[in-house]
From TrEMBL:
GO terms for biological process: negative regulation of ERAD pathway; negative regulation of retrograde protein transport, ER to cytosol; negative regulation of VCP-NPL4-UFD1 AAA ATPase complex assembly; positive regulation of autophagy. It comes from Portunus trituberculatus (Swimming crab). It comes from the Eukaryota. Residues 1-42, 75-96 are annotated as: Disordered. One of its GO terms (cellular component) is endoplasmic reticulum membrane. This is Small VCP/p97-interacting protein. It holds the Pfam family SVIP.
Length: 96
């Protein structure tokens, strides 16, 4: 049973050579906090970028289409403010 525990990082005096969690803790403390923070931010950005294109054949085409739609909406909003018009209600003199 000691063999099973040694390969899992648990007890036993066998050939495990120490627990993996102690190796992890000693490794992470050797890096200064600013460097570690920057590395974690870069890794998070890479994950987000990989997740964006997931399931799409051409993610760049989607980005271009979204930019065009946003630009068109922005132009329409600007035109709407300048014209101050559009549809006007008609007044009818029908006696109901």
């Amino acid at each position: 049973m000691g063999i099973l525990l040694s390969c899992c990082g648990g007890g036993g005096g066998g050939g495990g050579g120490g627990s993996p969690s102690s190796n992890y803790n000693s490794m992470s403390s050797s890096v200064d906090p600013d460097t570690r923070r920057r590395q974690m931010a870069e890794a998070a950005e890479a994950r987000l970028k990989a997740h964006e294109g997931r399931g799409l054949k051409n993610p760049e085409a989607l980005k271009l289409r979204q930019k065009k739609i946003e630009e068109l909406e922005r132009k329409q909003a600007e035109e709407g403010l300048e014209a101050e018009g559009g549809l006007r209600p008609q007044k009818t003199d029908k006696g109901i």
